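PROTEIN DESIGN WORKSHEET
SECTION A - STRUCTURE
LENGTH: 329
TOKENS:
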């Protein structure tokens, strides 16, 4: 079915730049992590996880998640490298009222595979989820397949609501560091997406998303290689109420941020106080006409950085092209 021409997506950008801010301020704790559902704690090693970088720890970690889900609380992952199976039904699946807390040097590492798609962690049909700290590591350098581009760090899907990802690094994925499709009320705080193959973050369908104090860098390998790509795939998928602020987009082979509203509605996107450095372009906006960087002006700063210096509203309609409503200086 075709999206009605009357459905208009408004993209409001109000951005400023403080060149003197240090990178450390972006990675600082933001108080984003919600309170656990209860005081109950369970260490994955109490369920048999080894964390030695050699043992498949998938079933042990899932056992801990399942146990905590019965009453709500926190699953603790101590320092170590935990090999996990990211393919199919064997993937780690988070459940309602569970907080997964990884120590600073804890790594959940995908076992090498040849699958077109995978995810180290999956969230779907679950409420009140938090993933805090640690690293999710993909296997892009050991991937034995040659097709597909959908190996994800965290896949947040249909029926996921009130999901918080805080202080997590997703790196070396065959596809994206983070992926959101069909979720509501999601927060990404102080996350890092680094050296992923397709995107740092893909936003396909969501209602209510905040991204703050985060870093998206070194995305390369297959197009579009964006830091963040906002792009519904079909008429039934809409993206609305997204705030991206106080974050950094560095050395991505594609754009720092891409907003593509060719196939469906994208509305109420606010992009403020972000740094862009070394990307193919800072920001790309594409509507039905495929216009790029329409109505946007950037100021080039010392060292190759870019900042948005005005406030612009761009109107995008599927199957019809509208001119921008102009600049406010």
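SECTION B - SEQUENCE
RESIDUE ASSIGNMENT:
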């Amino acid at each position: 079915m075709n999206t009605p021409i009357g459905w208009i997506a408004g993209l409001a950008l109000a951005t400023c730049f403080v060149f003197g801010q240090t990178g450390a301020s972006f990675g600082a704790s933001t108080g984003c992590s919600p309170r656990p559902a209860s005081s109950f704690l369970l260490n994955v090693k109490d369920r048999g996880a080894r964390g030695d970088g050699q043992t498949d720890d998938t079933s042990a970690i899932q056992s801990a998640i399942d146990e905590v889900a019965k009453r709500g609380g926190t699953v603790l992952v101590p320092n170590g490298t935990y090999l996990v199976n990211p393919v199919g039904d064997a993937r780690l699946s988070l459940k309602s009222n569970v907080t997964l807390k990884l120590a600073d040097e804890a790594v959940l590492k995908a076992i090498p595979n040849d699958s077109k798609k995978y995810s180290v962690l999956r969230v779907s049909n679950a409420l009140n989820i938090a993933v805090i700290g640690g690293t999710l590591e993909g296997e892009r350098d050991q991937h034995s397949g040659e097709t597909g581009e959908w190996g994800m760090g965290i896949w947040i899907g249909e029926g996921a609501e009130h999901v918080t990802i805080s202080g997590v690094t997703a790196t070396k994925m065959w596809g994206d560091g983070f992926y959101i499709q069909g979720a509501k009320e999601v927060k990404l705080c102080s996350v890092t997406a680094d050296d992923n193959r397709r995107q740092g973050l893909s936003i396909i369908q969501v209602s209510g998303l905040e991204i703050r104090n985060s870093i998206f860098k070194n995305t390369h390998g297959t197009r579009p290689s964006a830091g963040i790509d906002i792009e519904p795939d079909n008429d039934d998928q809409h993206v609305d109420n997204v705030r991206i602020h106080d974050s950094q987009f560095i050395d991505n082979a594609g754009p720092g941020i891409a907003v593509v509203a060719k196939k469906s509605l994208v509305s109420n996107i606010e992009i403020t106080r972000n740094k862009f450095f070394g990307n193919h372009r800072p920001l790309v906006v594409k509507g039905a006409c495929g216009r790029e960087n329409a109505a946007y002006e950037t100021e080039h700063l010392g060292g190759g950085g870019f900042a948005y210096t005005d406030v612009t509203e761009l109107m995008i309609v599927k199957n019809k092209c509208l001119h921008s409503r102009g600049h406010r200086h």
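SECTION C - NOTES
The chain has one domain: 8-20+32-328.
Residues 1-30, 288-329 have pLDDT under 50 and may be disordered.
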